[in-house]
Structure formats: C-alpha cells, structure tokens
Amino acid sequence: MVSRPIRVPRSLLAAAVALVSVAASLVGCSVVEPAAPAPLRVLQLNLCNSGMATGCYTGRSVARAAQVIRAEAPDIVTLNEICSGDVDMLERAMTDVHDGTVAAAFQPARNGRTGEPYRCVNGQQYGVGVLTHIPAPAADHEVHAGIYPAQDPADPEQRAWLCVEASTLFLACTTHLAYTSSTLALAQCAHLVGTAIPQLHADGRYRPTVVSGDLNLRHGGTPDVRSCVPADYRHRHDGGVQQFMATADLRIDATRSVSMERTTDHAAFLVTLTLPGQGDPAH
C-alpha cells in the first residue's frame, strides 16, 4: 500500500509561517505590565505629649507610638500634640521597617502672645508632624506648612497645618484644630481643604492627597465635620474627633483603631488605601 502525501492548503501554511515569525520577533522582548496599584497605610496619632494637658499626659505615648509603627509599618504617620524631639525617635522607628527614604517634618503651633513657636513643658517646640516613607527610586520631597488665619484670641496656642509632598507619589497633610470652638475648628478645616491644599495642587502640582488629624469635629456633630469634607473627597473617622480624608483617586480599603495602651487619650487610627499604580506599559 502506497501512502499519499498530505497536501496543506497554502493559506494555512502562510498563517503558520506568520505566527512563527511573530513569535521569533518577540524573543528577547520582555513585556512589562502596568504597575499594580500600591497599598498605602496611614497612621494617625494624637500623643498628648506637651506635658500641659495633665489629664492625658503620661510621658509614655511616644515609646508606645514607636511600637505601633514597628508593628504596623505604615507608609505615612500623622502626629498631633507632639514635641519637636519626638519626631527623631519616631523617624527611627519608621526607618527600622522601611527601605528607601523616610522624610520627617515638624510644624510648631504659634504662641499668639509672643509670636514665637509654642512650647512644651520641657521647652521643646510643640506642634504637629508628618513621617512619610518614599519608596525607591523616588526620594525627593517638599514640606509645606502654615498658621491658620482664624484663631481664638483667648487661646495663646495658634493652630497650624503641615503637608509633605512626597516626590510625584502623594501629598500627606495633618493638622490639630481648635478645641475651644467647633465653629472655629470648622473654619480652620475649610481653610486647609478649601484654600491651602488647592494652592498646593495648582500649577500642575496635583498629587493624590490625604488629610489625617485630630480636627476636634465629629461625624454627626454640630457643626458636622462632613460640611468641611470636599465633595470629591472620601472620608472616614474613628468614631470621635480623629478624621481622615482622601482625594477620590485613592480607594479606602479598610480602617481600624489600634490600642495605645492608655498612654494617651486617643487610640491610633489606621487607614489602608490603594494608591494608583505608577508608570505606563512598556517593552
């Protein structure tokens, strides 16, 4: 019995050759997928460490904060009611759990009677701080800060705001608003999210933005903190006066409180978000 050769249609043969050619052209060309959205963890801490508020001052809150930072490895830490020297200790805790750059910033409140920085009992400057982990290869950052135009004339402590612009990745802001008047606190909040941050976003400098701090305003309060939250921001709270806001390009995935073991009068407030991926598809 003689076998006959199998005839392959010319169209099928041409298609096969084309596929082989395409496969060969891709050898050695690695396709890089778009960068996956990155998690971003923000830890809010009010440490009551001035020494003036004796009802909540223990002298142990900074050490506990360092423990929480090492355990939770946040990307951003916002700090309220701290002394300037506290920043160094907490920056070391951030460095222990992160590679890359850790940027630390501090902004003192102002003494309305003297015009000088407000002071802790130990003589250090008193105010707010921000710690940010900036992953490699990014490293540069800028610090922006100010004193609110609206202040309580009967309270010598004039409240401040602070933002760290972490390369092209994000803008992280904190503040501790007036406690003597919720109406004044609302005005200060409106200045931060309605004037100060939009100015930082201007001229092509927009970054995904988070605002975290003790606003001395409550969800459902009078006035309600929600009247300060921009319409295009996301908002979460800890059930009390610690509030968190984020621009709409950041997705809030989870929130939870972390015990400070009675070293201060506020639990830590941890928010986990998704930061938009960086970079474009490339060969």
TrEMBL record:
Q: Where is the Endonuclease/exonuclease/phosphatase domain?
A: 59-219
Q: Do you know which PROSITE patterns this protein is assigned to? A: PROKAR_LIPOPROTEIN
Coiled-coil spans are none
Q: Name one Pfam family in it.
A: Exo_endo_phos
InterPro entries, alphabetized: Endo/exonu/phosph_ase_sf (IPR036691), Endo/exonuclease/phosphatase (IPR005135)
Gene3D superfamilies, from UniProt?
Endonuclease/exonuclease/phosphatase (3.60.10.10)
* Entry protein name: Endonuclease/exonuclease/phosphatase domain-containing protein
**Can you name the source organism?**
Micromonospora andamanensis
Q: What is the lineage of its organism?
A: Bacteria, Bacillati, Actinomycetota, Actinomycetes, Micromonosporales
